[in-house]
Amino acid sequence: MMSWYERSCAMLLTLLSTLNLTNCTWSRHDSGSLVDVRQYVQNASFGFSSRWEILGPFQIGTREAAWGADPLELYGGFRNISFNPESTFLSSLPLDGVARWSTLEAEHVQSNAQSSRVDLVVSFPGVQWDFLRTVYGWAAVQFQGWARGHITVTGVAAQSFVLYTDSVLEFWVDNEHFFGGDFYGFRKAPPVLWLEPGRHRLDVRLVRDVRAFGGIGEPIMAITLQIDKASGYLELGSNGIQISDLVGNTLAASIASITVRNSGKEAFALRGIRTPNNSFNVLLLEKDAVVLPGQTRPVAFKVTGTGSNATEITVLLDYALVETNASLDSLMANQNLRRKNLYEPHKVTYLHPGGIVSYVMLRPPQQNVSCNTQKDLPVLFFMHGAGNEAESELVSRSFDPVTDICAWVLFPTGVTPWSADDWHNWGFADVEAAINTIETWKSAVSWQGPGVDLEKWFACGHSNGGQGTWYALTHRPDNVIAAAPVSGYLSIQTYVPYNQWRLTDPRLVSIIQASTNSYRHELLISNANGINIHQQHGSVDDNVPSYNSRSMHYLLQEVGGRSDYTELPGVNHYFDGIMTTPNLQVFYKQQLGVIAPKTEHLDKFTLTVANPGDTGSKQGFQILLLRDPGQLGRLDIELSGKDSSTSIFSHNVLRFSVTNRVTSRTMKIDGQSVRSGRDFGQKLYYILGSDGAWKTSIDAPDNLSERSIRQMGPLDAIMRTSDKFVVRYEDTSLGAIALQISRNLQQYYYADTIILRSFSEPNTIKRNSGNMFTVSIGSNLPPSSHVRFPIMVDSSGRLSILDSSGSERTFNSEKDLAAIFLRPRGHDALELVVWGSDIHYAGLAARLVPLQTGAGQPDFLILSRAAMWKGVGGVVAAGFFDHHWQVTQTAYFA
């Protein structure tokens, strides 16, 4: 810990450097040493090298890097390989089957007193890229390699920096490993580095991903690295305040947030917030929140008052050292306020289920259209494509040509420009939170216009948002009354195939693939039957090929559904007005006109579910439990109006419910007669007993030992949280991994985390209903809240699993193991355990904490050291848990 004197020196040095006050000298004699601040500031500098050493290319599959899959790990890792132009490494990509060293001069190197930046453009011309692309498709123009450069720091003492790593997933600074990076260039949570004067090696893993870099032309990879001087204390993580627009003189919502980062070496507690603005009052939503060294956290607060004359808002965040509780300082943030007309798109903030502040651009029903025949209007939401911000005019003004529709129009963010997880668990929860905030907005602005039907949605989107539209159609079919997916892809597997992954046991591959079933919309397309859909795609789209839309147009026909399909000749991926073409405008007015069309009621349909935890009902039928969670579940339903009967055939379903809107007199399930909802006039639950007979219940089953519906799904179910995340660890050596998890959740999801340095939970954490991460090594794993949980670690640190037969599977021959698996946290929340036989293998497990969609993590994974170069081929056990949290029969054991 720094002494008072050291802290004072550091603060003064930072201030002098910032103000460029180099004509003054301040010194102190302490134990015979003399510190000349002027000399320090004048001589202190830092910057990147312009010459970089490159090694590659090597094969990599779509979203495979999270598994390791780095062939250089077979040689001890790139960090242990010295530059040698004569060295060769076997590779499947270059012409002669070997990868070599080369050198590269940076495109640009820029430095000043506060920042240094380098831009690298890496290509490997010695590969037959066009031929490989012809044979294997876009997957073949993905590659991996490494780049080595240096950061040079001058001066007399260690300094605090933040390192931005745009388009990078993994890197090393000297001997410290960082996984997560900033692949999409969000720049939300850069790592904090304390660098001594001298030369620091920077090894950067290059992972080319078609979704980020494209599949057309020469496959190059452009990355940007930037290192900025930090304050060494609490500082703003990003400029400005996330706050609603003013509608007239009223904020459209009362929730706001700022982001702070601790670039120092001691923990800070946030004591309060205040504002010099007379127009507003502010109050922290969580007082005494702690920001650990290196951590970035969003800070939510409430804003009240009217802004009759306000053009900006300034807040002062008071903080103190946790250890001494002494008041230290205040951090200032300010934001210009935008004043918007009530009827134009404007920014409305709200709380995401994960406890962070998100926003939506909201456009209420317009004055120029009469919707008197409808009391409550549906919600049209537009999901943007990857890399777009909802408040940009490109997104928020995209429906300006369409004002004469009877609907509330929303432009949700999905939290990030990539919608975090492609509009799935985290991103779609944001859509639903945005819809639900309309009622709060109505009160805030004293709305006198039409009401809103929060249960009726018109879903539409472009590109990644087009894919999100298919997600809405297949996962919320009872809510979606119509949809317009534009230039969207079906699934990642269809977009960029997985054929370049390392080969492994087909049974293991089937488990990995099954863990992404809920995002294979083409497998769930039966749920969209009966919904009015208009697809649109450009015929020469080289970003998302039109094959995706053509294929779904055909598949809808196979399941008895239909869609209108417009293919625009000679049109690429995007153009201004793509969401308001003549055909789409006609469709909007048909579906959202003064007289709304009736929703089609199907007499025969199929409900298909991959994960009951993220899928709603269709015509009142909802699947709640699957026999095997690694296999699709299905209900084939036929309603007969003549005799008011319902016939259902189930496939891999253990439990489902039927709302009282289904009024059949008789019901048969798999040929067995059961009581119908008409007998009770309320929602009914149908449960398959161990004897093979279906039973009826008016009460939702509530067995505390069972997996609740919120706990269902593979590892990415951890993102369906109802509060802030908690990351806990006990061994001090694991602090860096806990911080990495926190940093990556903020970087990729803008999520907030509370980090605990103990497995004991204080009362404030026990009241937290969110999901938890537990990081542990060896025997130091706290017991599960489930008394019969099948994965155990004994007092000697040996890991074992009870398989479906009750036999104990131990891994005695594997001394070096990593494990990551879900456990229940109470009845409704989840815990994700990140475990290793030592700190190195805990780091291997932490790579598989969900960051990017499509990596394919089932409920549990046990990995050996070989995963570092074999990827999924290094897995020694994998599978799913059933509804009793027991390992299913389909689990894989090497």
TrEMBL record:
Any one Pfam family match given in the protein's UniProt record, by short name: Peptidase_S9
One GO molecular function term of this record is:
serine-type peptidase activity
Q: Which SUPFAM superfamilies match?
A: alpha/beta-Hydrolases (SSF53474)
> Has UniProt tagged this entry with the keyword Signal?
yes
Domain Peptidase S9 prolyl oligopeptidase catalytic residue range list? 445-577
| Keywords noted in UniProt | Signal
Q: Which domain of life is it from?
A: Eukaryota
A Gene Ontology BP annotation from the UniProt entry = proteolysis
Q: Which residues form the signal peptide?
A: 1-24
Question: PANTHER family of this UniProt entry?
Answer: PEPTIDASE S9 PROLYL OLIGOPEPTIDASE CATALYTIC DOMAIN-CONTAINING PROTEIN, UNNAMED PRODUCT-RELATED
Name of this protein: Peptidase S9 prolyl oligopeptidase catalytic domain-containing protein
